Amino acid sequence: ExxxxxxxxxxxxxxxxxxLSCTGSGFTFGEYAMTWVRQAPGKGLEWVGFIRRExxxxxxxxxxxxxxxxxxxxxxxxxxxxxxxxxxxxDDTAVYYCARYSSCRGGICYSGGWFDPWGQGTLVTVSS
Amino acid sequence: QSVLTQPPSVSGAPGQKVTISCTGSSSNIGAGYDVHWYQxxxxxxxxxLIYGNNNRPSGVPDRFSGSKSGTSxxxxxxxxxxxDEADYYCQSFDSSLSDSRVFGGGTKLxxx
Lengths: 128, 112
What we know:
The structure holds two protein chains of two kinds.
Chain A: E1 3-7, E2 10-12, E3 18-25, E4 33-39, E5 45-51, E6 60-62, E7 70-75, E8 80-85, E9 94-105, E10 108-118, E11 122-126
Chain B: E1 9-12, E2 18-23, E3 36-40, E4 47-50, E5 64-69, E6 72-77, E7 86-93, E8 101-103, E9 107-111
Parallel strand pairs in B: 1-9
Antiparallel strand pairs in B: 2-6, 3-4, 3-7, 5-6, 7-8, 7-9
């Protein structure tokens, strides 16, 4: 079974740092880009960023709201993606989900990929 | 304000059909980028419902279908069931924004 497990959330003070982990199983982790999406309490989904496969440079892209504060990395040998969150603000309070990013299926590629599956999410609360 | 616009809520009786719209612009859906849909049941993570405008992953009932035309896309749900009550989100790619992967604001489906 293809599965992602998110971990590392918790209560943190404004200005501090936190690192989230996303552990994959049931698929070859290194063959996929990985993404992070967050959902503030009672709000919709917000894309945070994603990291390409190593064969595509392993580079990352970020939403404007987190650029310069958050960074995404990956360790394919452990099937883990990380979201390092620095200089946290109260507005960063949310459930954070990782998801596998795909743009091709059944030999057909699409312009702009989708997120499947998703981890169960981990809650990050930024408060003093 | 989301880049993709969805109605905040829709409702329907069991057995009926509902449609959820997702309106974009010339830099996302109108530029030819594909649209994907997710279902989020209460208290759970989102789940992929439709990919590439109108394709269902295995395990998704054929009561769910997607379409795209011009700068808009739609999700149709036929034969409404009580457990379809959830939030639904569309998602696409936008070429004009730094935040390239964009979601709609979400639509709450209530089964009456």
